[in-house]
């Protein structure tokens, strides 16, 4: 086989593969991307949905921070009570 035969085979199969990819959904998506079309009809909808999701996550984060602060206060109180009880036991009962 000579070089021209190999080139012809590569051109036939390579060209066929390129055409098959071009007409596939992947090829259409690549073409739309090159043209600058967005996959969704309105990019604003997606941005609004993401903004709402971000706000909801921020609210949940603030709630978790508030609960954590409350738990820290409760733990400090419990530690003070335990320390106070231990001090009373070391000194001895008051008479």
In short:
By secondary structure, the protein is an all-alpha fold. The chain has helices spanning 3-22, 25-35, 43-91.
How much of the polypeptide forms β-strand, as a percent range?
A: under 5%
The tally of structural domains comes to 2
Number of H/I helices: 3
The structure class reads mainly alpha
Helical residues, percent: over 70%
Uncertain regions: pLDDT < 50 for 5+ in a row? none
The biggest beta sheet, please? none
Mean pLDDT metric: 84
CA-based shape = elongated
What is the total tally of β strands?
A: 0
- Assembly type of the chains comes to single chain
Structure description:
- With 95 residues, the chain is an all-alpha fold.
- The chain folds into two domains: 1-39; 42-90.
- Helices cover 84% and strands 0% of the residues.
- It has helices at residues 3-22, 25-35, 43-91.
- The protein is elongated.
- It starts with a helix and ends with a helix.
- The model has no long low-confidence stretch (mean pLDDT 84).
């Amino acid at each position: 086989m000579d070089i021209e035969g190999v080139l012809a085979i590569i051109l036939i199969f390579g060209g066929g593969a390129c055409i098959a990819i071009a007409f596939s959904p992947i090829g259409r998506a690549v073409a739309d991307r090159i043209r600058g079309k967005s996959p969704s009809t309105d990019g604003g909808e997606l941005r609004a949905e993401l903004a709402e999701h971000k706000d909801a996550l921020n609210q949940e984060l603030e709630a978790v921070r508030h609960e954590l602060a409350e738990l820290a206060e409760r733990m400090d109180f419990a530690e003070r009570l335990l320390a106070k009880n231990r001090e009373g036991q070391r000194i001895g009962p008051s008479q």
